[in-house]
Amino acid sequence: MLDGFSNASRIPELRRRLWFTAVMLVVYRVGVAVPTPGIDGQALASFFDAASSTLFGWVNLFSGGALERFSVFALGIMPYISVAIILDLLKVAWPYLDELYKEGEAGRRKISQYTRYGTVMLSVVQGFMIAYSLEHIQAPGGGSVVYAPGWNFRIMTVLTVTAGAMFVMWIGEQITERGIGNGISLIIMAGIVARLPSALSTTFQFVREGEMSLFVLILILLIAIGVTAGIVYVETGQRRIPIQYARRVVGRRVYGGQSSHLPLKVNTAGVIPPIFASSILVFPATVATFIPAAKNYSAFLTPGGWVYNVVYVALIVFFCYFYTAVTFNPVDVADNLKKYGGFVPGIRPGRFTAEYIDRILSRITLGGAIYVSIVCILPTILIQRFNVPFYFGGTALLIVVGVALDTVAQMETHLLTRNYEGFMRRGRIKSRRGG
């Protein structure tokens, strides 16, 4: 790994991409520290300390603390991701979007344009909702969060956070085009990792004050290392279906006859299922923040309770199957194989191949859903059993490890195209996309 990074510094193009990515991420983190006018920062921080289990705490996690400070990047990259996921899901019910996805580069540019327009509209709606909510929030000490409530504050807040969201989207697109790795994923990863130092500092403070023993700390570190290794192992795992191409004679030349494989990822849905499941489960707690009568009902879905864990796992399994069915169509794959003369040995082309692929995909998706559920439930168990003072695991750990794997794979691709050994001497690192 260290040899790979030393080789990366010898390639001017890759070195420029790495520096550009680092500078853009620094710009993003600087913007997170710039507050929006009209907010009492201390009162807002006190509110987030008491509302960490609501939707505000969830969004604050992925914004890297920007919502807690209510900075100009308070919305972060979440509006862009939400619109992209919605368009991805709508292609099942809207044939026009499905055709755009199949048109190649021209279709992707059109979809990117729709995503930007949708990001602006969603940012305006979310900005107004947050501004209106902040006007009605009372900090735990009884103080008001907003200095001067009213339409002036609302309009200023909507314009500020919408402009910030569009700038964050631009940073992500620039990193993808001119840097290394996926810019949107790297921004989310940077926001999550930025909260790690304060979490570690709190943990060591607990050890010094005697609230956590040194043995428990070492045990937690070993569990974290083991879970990270397990995520790397599963995220790079594939079920390879053998593919054989028939020979075709065109004139005096013979085409085809090669053997290949169709890679199916164990976790095809990625981190989308836990994100959707968590968003649904934190909604009752968010409503209870503004409607006191709803606290009795939201108490059943308190994080850490057995009802919460059961519903959480059920939603993760559901969304794993649902999102996999949306993003991977076995019928289209079978038709493409038949079109180019490919077939699975022992399976008839067409409908039978689609059923065979769907059967295998259903089985490995169950394993992937169980794996995601275990990883996402583990932080809750650590907090309950070992009094861990931070929530850094589950979805956050999946995102960090997955983005790191993709980025390293792209760096190794640059190295291998220039005859360097890359990051691993014995073989290449597989991309999480299975390509």
What does the model show?
The longest helix is centred in the C-terminal third of the chain and has 36 residues, at 351-386. The protein has a domain at 9-188: Preprotein translocase SecY subunit (Orthogonal Bundle). Helix 2 runs antiparallel to helix 9, helix 6 packs across helix 8 and helix 9 crosses helix 10. The chain is built from 18 helices and five strands. It is mostly helical. A hairpin with a 2-residue loop joins strand 2 and strand 3. The strands form two sheets. A three-stranded antiparallel beta sheet has the order 4-1-5. It has a two-stranded antiparallel sheet with strand order 2-3. It is 67% helix and 5% strand. It has helices at 2-8, 12-32, 41-50, 55-62, 66-69, 78-90, 95-102, 105-135, 151-178, 183-193, 196-209, 214-235, 272-290, 295-298, 306-327, 330-339, 351-386, 395-416; strands at 238-245, 248-250, 253-255, 259-265, 342-343. The chain is globular and about 85 Å long.
